[in-house]
Amino acid sequence: MTALFEHSPWVEQRADARPSSGDRHADLMAVVEQATPEERLALIRAHPELAGKAAIDRTLTEASTAEQASAGLDRLTPEEYERFHALNAAYRDRFGFPFIICVRLTDKAGILAAMERRLGNDREAEIAAAIEQIGEIVRLRLKDLT
User: Fold this and answer.
1) Predicted model pTM
2) Where would I find the beta strands (DSSP E) of 1-146?
3) Could you state, in order of their start, the residue ranges of all structural domains in the chain?
4) What is the pLDDT of residues 113-136, one digit of tens each?
5) Does position 60 have pLDDT exceeding 90, yes or no?
């Protein structure tokens, strides 16, 4: 079974404990929105860096592996890998969590451009952007299950 949320089963568990609205995605994202700031930050931090160490040592979840491959992140040139590594480090240093984007909706160039652009945001804007992108990832993962 595909995990909808990276290493965060609590989201699905809480949604399952509530009456369903009939819209699974909305129910799941309501749990995320109602979570504490610390829980939302933990959810963000549960995601792997793009083209990062987890991709190399093969500790990505099955879903993340497939998603990163769909954007070509498993086929980076040494120069591209270095660029991703540098941007990942700069982003993590600035915000304290990994850059998150729904890679299935873009490509390598789009991801790099978004990383560079979003480095200019403030932390609250990036938390909101990360949660929004997690919502897109989950929406596509739910679609894959149907």
Assistant:
1) 0.89
2) none
3) 9-145
4) 999 999 999 999 999 999 999 999
5) no
CB 83, CB 108: distance < 8 Å = no
- C-alpha–C-alpha distance, residues 57 and 54, integer Å: 5
Instruction: Please name the amino acid found at residue 126.
Output: E
pLDDT, tens digit, 9 for 90 and up, residues 25-46: 999 999 999 999 999 999 999 9
DSSP of 23-55, one letter per residue?
-HHHHHHHHHHHS-HHHHHHHHHTSPPTTSHHH
Of the candidates 60, 53, 61, 51, which has an alpha carbon nearest to the alpha carbon of residue 108? Answer: 51
**Which of 7, 25, 47, 85 is the catalytic position?**
47
Q: Are 64 and 74 in contact (CB under 8 A)?
A: no
Question: Domain 9-145 belongs to what topology?
Answer: UraD-like (1.10.3330)
Cα–Cα distances (Å) from 116 to 3, 110, 112, in that order, read: 29, 10, 6
Distance CA 101, CA 80 (A): 17
Long-range contacts at 55-62 (CB < 8 A, ≥ 24 apart): 61/3, 61/6, 61/7, 62/2
Q: pLDDT per residue over 87-119, tens digit each?
A: 999 999 999 999 999 999 999 999 999 999 999
Does the active-site annotation cover 25?
no
